[in-house]
Hints:
metal ion binding, cobalt, Rossmann fold, 166 residues, 6 helices, 37% helix, cobalamin binding, five-stranded parallel sheet, alpha/beta
Amino acid sequence: MTDAPIPAATPAEAFAATPAEAFAATPAETPLATPVRVLVAKPGLDGHDRGAKIVSRALRDAGFEVIFTGIRQKVDDIVAVAVQEDVALVGLSILSGAHMALTTRVIEGLKAASADDIAVVVGGTIPLTDVPKLRELGAVAVFPTGTPLVDVVSGVRAVTGAASAA
């Protein structure tokens, strides 16, 4: 055994160990006047859902009605749930590196279902060089890893036109 100090957690480890309660809406964030329905989905084979759950909770705490699909969802199922639940927005959480292909397929699926009025946002492990490409595909907002939750909530509010309660 050595007496070497135990290294501090990396920023990612510290973030992962932070309880969801720490990300509750700040006092400056008032609840929504009318709840807006959003779908948070994990398409493809990515099995890590902690970030999606944290974002879902932050949106719920901000007054959104959140539907979470769970992990390993097929694109067709995400589109079907979005249409069935009449959501205003689909948030895709993608950590697998397949963000370009999966985002394209979801947007095309919504168009094919005559539901292209449903906004699509993407978050996860996304290289900054891919952000403009995702926007060109039709994603109305992109939240790469490390985006503060308050910015995600504000961005979703802006995209959906969600008004705060007076």
